[in-house]
Design brief:
The complex is a heterodimer of chains A (355) and B (298).
Chain A: H1 8-14, E1 53-55, E2 60-62, E3 65-66, H2 67-72, H3 77-86, H4 92-106, H5 112-121, H6 127-135, H7 145-162, H8 166-177, E4 185-186, H9 194-205, H10 210-225, E5 231-232, H11 234-244, H12 249-274, H13 304-307, H14 316-327, E6 336-338, E7 352-354
Antiparallel strand pairs in A: 1-2, 2-3, 4-5, 6-7
Helix pairs in contact in A: 4-9, 5-6, 5-12, 6-12, 7-8, 7-11, 7-12, 8-10, 9-11, 10-11
Chain B: E1 14-16, E2 21-23, E3 26-27, H1 28-33, H2 38-47, H3 53-67, H4 73-82, H5 88-97, H6 106-123, H7 127-140, H8 160-169, H9 175-193, H10 203-213, H11 218-243, H12 280-290
Helix pairs in contact in B: 3-10, 3-11, 4-5, 4-11, 5-11, 6-7, 6-10, 6-11, 7-9, 8-10, 9-10
The chains are: A mainly alpha (355), B mainly alpha (298).
Chain lengths: 355, 298
């Protein structure tokens, strides 16, 4: 391993390098060592730690079950989802319900995952790139299962700690989140019975629990204060059912995004079969789409100082005024607010939107 | 709410109205209400047909056995991406996109079978003769025969032969299984003849054969496999996100972490002084002339 004592000449030869010799630096850059860090023998060596699965030369074992034996015993893919995510064999009714949910989640016409898959397909890629890209469509508006589920968890927890009835918790949730895309109640399914049928099936199979019950109350609360007609939508029906099947909000998000990716593969194939690849520079954007600054001459570089405007704000007032102006520049990002937090434990609750 | 289509396309896969979502002519909600399975729906999606019970069982088995594979490139990809704590779908997308020319190359295997079956028809050879031709052509060229060998399950992939057996038990034997079995026979014979070790069929060789047999195209089969793996990779990413440490480099963990500094082994050019801008042109010209840099170009 190289270090300073190995190679003093390197640091000696360098002389002044930019600002690295500045006394404002909290270090003496010239005294820093080269070389990689030796293996750490004081701690256990790195291993892939997993609670989910392991394999050896002869077996693949998930949550204690040999996966080949699981299949030989007559279980299937849907059972494996319960094993991987919940470390348990599902009841027959639960397996049936998840099959039902996944059929409904499989396809949604030319919606965003399909469109993303098709766009990637047009660049002559592997199918797997397109299927992978489709999964990226799942956020906190489209396919917002983690946002929906975590919100339910959060208000149910508030009901417990604040001594609220379920009805009161539902009303509070609606009051505070009425226009959120992940509410699970909207005008999207007023003429399509699929969401209601899913909940009815969960009840018929005996797998409906507190989440479906709470969601029904949320629907009622939303209907009470909404200006127009609203009802349970597919996000609400699917999200609540998955939670009652024991899946966490994040597991639900993952399972349903992957489920849709099976269809994204078909959209990739159809795009390749029926369409043409798209070349670099091929796609035009008509001027009629454009509403930015008028066409203007590029000023000569020698006149740069005459034309350039500084972006530096020296006072908070200047900054606030500049910020307002910058918000008007569409595409600059100044008009957007995001709260980017570690989504490890909970995801989708924080707001992303316009200022 | 704007419900206009995002793109204009003719599609034979599905449509969606305010009243229903229809895939290949079937109302999805009706399909679920009738008690069909998710695997049935995949036949409808990719093949425009309701499968036989045996075919549905075969798909359920194949996908179930393929879904979880502990630490493979796909799971490692998902875990690696999750270390930065992006949203979970990023880790899953990364996992699915690890499937390429080597990791689970289902489409490549399928296209190989189709190509040689076409040749069998054109050249008037039997399936067995053409399987031998395939093995000889691949091995003569030093190319790996798709569907054979697995770097971790060196003593025969625990999923592979059981898939073949289940396909036979379900009486789903067709030309693909006949071809694959013949391929394996000639592959084993040639390796034995050359004094080389036994290399068994892998899950792509057997699983993809079953998928092709029950009517899926090479790419559809690849999609079923690679996307299905996404389910388990998401679980691995989620475990790491919920119960592991972000970044994977903490010195406070009792075990050295995935990207601890000590995990880095460097084998590139020696440490060297960055040239001053005043010397840059001469330095760069000399470097280019000497050409030693070329051995590092990737």
């Amino acid at each position: 391993m190289g270090n300073l004592t190995d190679k003093p000449e390197l640091n000696q030869k360098k002389g002044k390098i930019g600002n690295l010799n500045s006394p404002k630096n909290p270090f003496d850059y010239n005294q820093r060592e080269y070389g990689t860090v030796p293996l750490d023998t004081n701690r256990a060596p790195f291993q892939w730690v997993s609670e989910v699965a392991y394999k050896n030369v002869h077996r693949i074992v998930s949550r204690g079950y040999d996966t080949t034996e699981v299949m030989e015993e007559g279980y299937g893919l849907v059972d494996m989802l319960f094993i991987d995510y919940q470390a348990r064999i599902p009841l027959i009714e639960e397996e049936k319900m998840l099959n039902y949910v996944m059929i409904l989640a499989l396809e949604d016409g030319l919606s965003m995952p399909a469109v993303m898959s098709r766009m990637v397909a047009r660049s002559k890629t592997f199918l797997t790139q397109a299927a992978g890209a489709s999964i990226l469509a799942f956020g906190h508006a489209y396919g917002a299962y983690s946002a929906f589920g975590n919100r339910l968890e959060s208000y149910l927890s508030r009901a417990d700690t604040e001594g609220l009835t379920i009805e009161a918790a539902a009303e509070l949730l609606v009051e505070e989140n009425m226009n959120d895309e992940a509410l699970g109640v909207s005008d999207l399914m007023l003429q399509d019975p699929a969401a209601q049928r899913m909940i009815a099936r969960a009840e018929k199979l005996g797998v409906a629990g507190k989440y479906i019950y709470f969601t029904r109350k949320i629907v009622k609360a939303a209907q009470k204060i909404s200006d127009g007609p609203v009802d349970l939508d597919m996000l609400g029906a699917t999200g609540a059912t998955m939670l009652d099947l024991g899946f966490s909000p994040e597991a639900t998000w993952a399972i349903l995004a992957v489920t849709r990716a099976f269809a994204a593969g078909a959209h990739y194939i159809e795009e390749v079969e029926r369409g043409e690849p798209c070349r670099t520079g091929q796609t035009l954007t008509p001027k009629s789409f454009y509403d930015g600054p008028e066409d203007r001459p590029v000023p000569p570089l020698k006149d740069r100082n005459k034309n350039a405007k500084s972006g530096i704000c020296h006072t908070v007032d200047e900054w606030a005024a500049a910020r307002e102006e910058r918000k008007k520049i569409v595409g600059s990002g100044h008009a957007i607010i995001e709260e980017i937090e570690d989504p490890s434990k909970k995801s989708g609750i924080k707001k992303v939107g316009k200022l | 709410m704007d419900r206009e289509p995002l793109i204009n396309r003719k599609t034979a896969i599905s449509y969606k109205t305010e009243e229903k979502t229809v895939m290949r002519g079937y109302d999805l909600s009706e399909l679920a209400e009738e008690g069909y399975s998710f695997c049935d729906a995949l036949f409808v999606m990719y093949q425009n047909r309701i499968p036989t019970e045996e075919e549905e069982k075969m798909l359920k088995y194949e996908m179930g056995v393929f879904m979880e594979h502990s630490m493979s490139p796909s799971a490692v990809g998902a875990i690696g991406v999750s270390a930065g704590r992006p949203n979970l779908p990023c880790a899953i997308a990364a996992a699915v996109t690890t499937f390429g020319g080597v990791h689970g190359p289902g489409a490549a295997h399928g296209y190989m079978l189709n190509k040689y079956l076409e040749r069998a028809k054109k050249e008037g050879k039997t399936v067995d003769e053409m399987a031998k031709t395939l093995v000889d052509e691949y091995m003569d060229a030093g190319k790996p025969v798709m569907g054979m060998g697995q770097p971790q399950h060196i003593d025969s992939d625990p999923r592979a032969e059981p898939i073949h057996l289940r396909q036979e038990e379900l009486k789903l034997e067709g030309v693909y299984l006949e071809f694959q079995r013949a391929l394996e026979k000639h592959f084993h014979a040639r390796r034995k003849e050359e004094g080389r070790s036994y290399v068994g069929v892998n899950v792509v060789g057997s699983g993809n054969t079953a998928l092709m047999e029950i009517g899926f195209s090479p790419n559809a089969g690849w999609c079923l496999g690679s996307v299905c793996r996404g389910f388990s990779c998401a679980a691995h990413a989620l475990f790491n996100m919920k119960k592991g440490r972000a970044w994977g480099a903490s010195r406070n963990e009792p075990m050295v972490q995935m990207i601890d500094l000590s995990m880095i082994k460097y084998v590139g050019p020696e440490d060297r002084v960055v040239p001053k801008q005043a010397d840059r042109q001469e330095y760069a010209r000399k470097q280019k002339e000497e050409g030693e840099y070329k051995k590092w170009v990737i």
